[in-house]
Specification:
It catalyses: a 5,6-dihydrouridine in tRNA + NADP(+) = a uridine in tRNA + NADPH + H(+); a 5,6-dihydrouridine in tRNA + NAD(+) = a uridine in tRNA + NADH + H(+). With 333 residues, the protein is α/β, with parallel strands linked by helices. 43% of the residues lie in helices and 15% in strands. Helix 1 (30-38) packs antiparallel against helix 11, helix 11 (258-276) packs antiparallel against helix 12 (278-295) and helix 11 runs antiparallel to helix 14.
Amino acid sequence: MSDIACTLSIAGHELPNRAFLAPMAGITDAPMRKLAERFGAGLVVSEMIASNALATNNDDMVRRLNKSGALPHVVQLAGCEAEWMRKGAEIAYAAGADIIDINMGCPSKRVTNGYAGSALMRVPDEALKLIDAVVAATPLPVTVKMRLGWDEDCLNAADLARRAVDAGAQMITVHGRTRQQFYKGEARWNLVRPVVEAVSVPVVVNGDITSIAAAREALGQSGAAAVMIGRGAQGQPWAVGQIGAQLVGREPQAAPTGAQLAELVAEHYDAMLTDYGTQLGVRVARKHLDWYLEAANIVLDKPVRGQLLNALKPAEFTRMISDIYSGDWRLAA
């Protein structure tokens, strides 16, 4: 395991700590990444961007290119054709990306049915064509995120990582599950160690890292240089920075509570409405609102929850959030 007290650098980008926010489609948009960075995340990664849709100027994919803060702007591209990946990389570069990450880990059927995401682990020669295309397209550093393999009969992460690094990849992230596991069972951090031993670049371990204890265990089992936190940050964007601080023995920022948390949730809500537009933003915000309530162990009566999630006026939403986090709403048992 790397000395976590030392600074980690990715292709010349010096990172503040070794706890990163994972890319999650429909979740780690610019508002979410901005909050994670404010609370001390060491690195944040964009939502997965479909390279072919980006190259044809799809509005949603273009929105996903938005930079969120001062950290290196990592844009994650997905695709199955070298030409689209090349074009996507060029567009990301022109839009201000600092690093391009290639998605070879998404288990979604919608993605893998198109032979992208973790489906690429079944065809490593095709996966290498994409890496070659992206590395050649711009001067930006390229990283790769993958899983352990497609299934138990194809645990090929170490071999694919070695080939990816030989092709120019400068960091590898591994989710400790196979594609066929999706998000079931437990992440097997120990199976990331062969990847660490196979390459000379930093390896990041991902999956089921929801606390400082889990982060330390994941690093110990895998020998990885850093951790990447996904679902553990839902409803608590401060969690990534807290883990990053604790890994180096610093006192973490306290999680917001009460009125401070109400202000943060309202700010996140307003930012989503700005980013997506009010009509779509209200719908996108609902899952984040549910996660914030769950993280705070708040269970609302159904009428109150429905009113909150369907509030269309920001002022109404802000008032309700303030009342809820101050305890003024009657909570279900």
